[in-house]
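Box 3.1. Reading complex inputs
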Amino acid sequence: MNTHYDVVVIGAGVCGAAIARRLSAYELKVALVEKEVDVSFGVSKANSGIVHGGFHHSTKSLKSKLEVQGNRMFDQLKEELHFPFERCGILVVAFSTEEMRTVEQLYRQGVANRAVGIELCNRERILMLEPKLNNDVVGGLFAPAGGIIEPYRLVFSLVECAQQNGVEVLLNWEVSSAVDQGSYYTLKNQKGETIEADYVVNAAGLYTDRISALFGAEEYKIVPRKGEEFLMDRNAKAYTRRVIFPVPDPLSKGTLVIPTVEGTTMIGPTAEMIEDKEDTTTTRDNFEKAFYSARRLVPAVSERDIITSFTGLRPTIAGDDFYIDYSRKVPRFIHVAGIQSPGLTASPAIGEYVKHLLKKRGIRLVEKPDWKPSIAEVPRIRELSPFDADQLIATDPSYGEIVCRCENISEKEIVEAIRRGHVTLDGIKFYTRAQMGRCQGGFCTYKILKILQRETGMTIDEITKRGKDSFVVTSRIGELAVGATVEGAV
Amino acid sequence: MRQEHYDVAVIGGGSAGMAAAISLAQRGKSVVLFEREEVLGGILLQCIHNGFGLHHFKEELTGPEYAERVSKTLEELPVTVFVGSTVMHMEEAHAGEGKIVYAYSREHGIVMAEVRAVVLAMGCRERNRGNIGTPGTRPAGVYTAGLAQRLVNVEGYIPGKEVVIVGSGDIGLIMARRMTWVGAKVKAVVEIQPYPAGLTRNIVQCLNDFSIPLYLSHIVSEIHGKNRVEAVTITPMVDGMPDTQRSFRVDCDTVLLSVGLVPDNEVSKKLGVQLNPETNGALVDSRLMTNVPGVFACGNVLHVHDLVDFVTEESTRCGEYVAEYLDGVRPAAQHRVVAGSNVKYVLPNWYDRSHDNRFYLRPMVVKNRAELQVRLDGHVIKTKVLKHVQPSEMIALALDEKDLGDGAAQGDLRLEIAIV
Amino acid sequence: MDNTKREMVCIACPVGCHLTVSTAEDGSVVVEGNRCQRGVEYGREELLAPKRVVTATLAVSRGKSPRVPVKTDAPLLKAFIPGLLDQVYNMEIAAPVALGMVVLENIGGTGVRLVTTRSVLEVRAI
């Protein structure tokens, strides 16, 4: 007997998670299915972590409407879901009168979009707002409502809240076929398992085109736009007070200098249209491009401070807007496609918007009387004073065991991540920040491997970095024949 | 919260911290030592190969033996040791010259130690893939050599079966032999410089013994593999530029990085300790004191040593200096020491004309029959002929009052040490 | 293995002379390229009977650490090394383990012993 859901949301990125949480407020049986081993492991994990200011996109677009609406929802969301978020403000900086003209255009667009608090800045004002800017700056734009966020933490919190309110999360569940049974769909995965859904929301990120085709819905093509990001040490001199944007070009918002909400600095993203949806390689060329652009904004940016780099892929679609609509070809099917920037900012509003679309297509929404919008906050030892930390350790000694010395993460925080289902090294990294600091796991990986084995019962050779066959360790001593290798020696 | 008072807090229980604590306790000072791990010994415990102690113990020991000998000595002295305790904060005490050190542990919660002096002995960390910017995918199977060493030697786990090692530093070479000895196949060691970064003895015994190819003047220009490492691209360097036409691919499931060590000074910054950008260690005077009075540094947190024996020597001496500081001894006027031609750095960064001074310096060049020159005010005041210098071998140099000339000399008192 | 002529780097000191070591017709060993007498001794031994100190780990039951490091107490003929390693990896000893404990005697009849290089305490049953 197949499990039957009112709604199946395909893709546990930030959109799928926001939609699932929104739907969890109603008397509906909802599943969130994800092909990866953990949520947020697709497009959302390599996001720049910006809550945008509402001035980059045309007033006529759905993008700008959802961006501005989504931006306003973050304060309450943070109260409820405790993810790291701060409205540090966004600056767009111009280095010529010509660039300044583009900035003025952005300003007018922002005003029309009703972006909160947006202003034009002269040279002195912009340098006061950010003293680390290149002295050649001539002026710019300030969007105080813009902010910074930990993208995966937002997804994790949204999913945790959704789960707490009854949403089922199916991981390692890649939709491989779909059949319309008349009043519901049957979805089959790569292992041959099936589930049933009255309604389907396609939030599959880079693969929304493939999912749409499986259901016989509209044809479109998602083209990945590759963006490399460079993460720098928390002591980097380039750490600014606000997010610094260059004047945008037609392809993207440009390479930014981002003070991350966790106190590190990030440079990126680059922008390059590619074909391969799995191509997350980093290249020397992009490194040079990113640093060249970033140093033009903030001269203190230094290669010496890099601790890691990674690549994200934005799912772009023809036209310059999100494609969020119900299918005109097949029933009970919603597209959430082409969600590139400012998708993260818009995501809470996308949740709301998709709820309305489902309602329009006939779903019955009855509010749950006991819906809980908040999740429990897991204290982080490094955010507490020694006095408060001491009391916390008294209640649970594993808060006193510092596993990650770079980011100061306790064993308790690792265990909390594992208990929420983040059972890969990357999952633990994104939830706790352990392995994300300057040593990049050099010191803490073996400790995390031990905790994972103890908490999950997995053996060492079952543990992966991020699912599939990304195994961390291949063997134990004694399992490989030594004689064979050493014998050949001179 | 547990509040305690001591003369000195030593941060770190590896070879440096233990030696400093021993030295202080032998001079009658009350000492508290904080160690993150459950046992004393630090990184020595995973260095199960031999070659330690020839200078200090006059015999060849393995890392664990060296650590255990030193910790035995420590155990016999009245030093308060907190293991499993991580120092997360340090601050100036509200009154007087004291410092407050906060250590976090499972067993004791927060221990707040008020002390008159602090010895920084936290050691170093490994440079990683991000630091050298190796392009490619980001699969599992890329580890620093030290992490691999810990996994193999302490936990008994083998990270992979076919290995390429980036960098020919000693840890990388030692790991090449270790991986071979546990049954893995080491397919290449790739070094960007035209000469090996590690000791010749390790090249011979860790690579040549197993016919492991060493590619000098080569880089790993790309890492391949979606989930787990599948291969690397190796590219020769010609005149400092990668010659991509001659790139070749080596299949492997593991990449180990041995691309240098960096002093781990994050906690030091909480007390306002100034660092030397060349070493990432503290700037210290002739008595190994940082710019913050009462805060001293020794061992690999000050600069990366190539022999633990030197760490023990330097840290023992540091303990003496701290003891004298506590007794009210203050050094005379100090003058800067600068690294001259072909020298990467010299430590300490200041010298004292009224005392004997002991320096450690690291050459930037490989050279037979090199001359070490000490210059003061434009004049060469001392020379020393060295049979062989190379960046992987630190040079020790002692200067006494006599070398430094009569105390009345005027002019530029900066001391420059160069290799010509 | 061709014992007649070999290139090697002397590691008796950091200079690292490149030696050419060969066997003369009368059976004596000829070392060239050395800058001092130590090079001759090094080259001769490397050619005739190369030996290495072996270090490894073996499993410990009920120990605070899962493995204990060991070493040979003298350099061992290289030919014996693979066999020794395979043997060591299949051994297990019970905690507590003292430093310097002899684990194997007279390896391959050479008189070389395998000894522990760290003490391992026993985990107390709770």
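In summary: The mean pLDDT of chain B is 94.
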